[in-house]
Write a structure and sequence with these properties.
The protein is α+β, with helices and mostly antiparallel strands. It has helices at residues 3-17, 23-32, 39-49, 69-80, 100-109, 135-147, and strands at 51-56, 59-64, 81-86, 91-95, 115-120, 124-129. Strand 5 and strand 6 (124-129) form a beta hairpin.
């Protein structure tokens, strides 16, 4: 994973787990995780990831924009997939360690995916198609997620 991908993955984790009111605080939280970044780089990351600063009753916080959330999630899922394998019966996806379950949930919730279910371990997912005739279509859609086309 590139340093940009690692940094953006860590930003996603921090924003999801904590209330972060400012870029300065986010920079400090990243630094405690061993990621040193500039405010300009952080600002570009936040824009690219669809993270916006929202007002709350207790001040401001960073959160995923609801309009950009699916696009951002799709991009993150695409980064977490490492390999797609298929045969006549099912599709197997290899992910980054510890990410199989999150990726499986993403595919389970896709509309018109032709996937009836998944089984996820730590870094491997088995997808069960609605029919064997759709295996190639499903695999192509997963590759599109990986490349950012879908």
């Amino acid at each position: 994973m590139s340093s940009k991908q690692s940094r953006q993955f860590k930003i996603k984790e921090i924003i999801s787990a904590k209330t972060v009111p400012s870029q300065e605080e986010l920079c400090e939280l990243l630094a405690t995780e061993g990621i040193d970044t500039t405010q300009a780089t952080l600002s570009r990351d936040l824009q690219e990831m669809g993270i916006v600063r929202l007002p709350t009753e207790k001040g401001f916080k960073y959160a995923f924009s609801t309009t950009d959330l699916s696009k951002t999630l799709r991009k993150i899922v695409g980064l977490e997939i490492q390999l797609i394998l298929q045969n006549e019966v099912c599709i197997v996806i290899k992910t980054l360690p510890g990410r199989a379950q999150g990726v499986a949930v993403y595919f389970d919730q896709m509309e018109d995916s032709h996937i009836i279910g998944s089984v996820a371990g730590d870094d491997t997912i088995m997808l069960i198609p609605d029919t064997t005739q759709n295996i190639a279509l499903i695999a192509d859609n997963i590759r599109k997620v990986m490349s950012g086309e879908l």
